[in-house]
Specification:
Strand content: 35-45%
Oligomer: single chain
Distance between the termini: 26 Å
Largest sheet: 4 strands, mixed
Order of helices and strands: EEEEHEEEEEHE
Strand order of the largest sheet: 5-8-9-10
Number of strands: 10
Structural class: alpha+beta
Radius of gyration: 15 Å
Shape: globular
Amino acid sequence: MRRSKYGVRTDKAGKEARTVDNVCFHSKKEATRYTELKLAQTVGMISDLELQPSFDLKVNGILICRYKADFRYRQDRQQVVEDAKGFKTPEYRRNKNLMLAIHGIEIQEV
């Protein structure tokens, strides 16, 4: 196995080494969080768990970029958007600020 730029272990084909429920995750942290959220949904603590939801980040009708979060779900009738971050890149920090400014969504980091 090789290591990527951010330490993600990959196989010879470049696929991530961490797979849960036939879903490949970018990190062990993300895979672990998915397992926790899946359990929380099973016992009714959260609902509508979604993997890698995409958000268009537009300013004045112009698409600046698309942000892909790790998870989105509902908890206590509130939408929660989460990202399992080990390293916060400048691009992520910009997108986090755009998400708050454009959609009013504060990304939760785990």
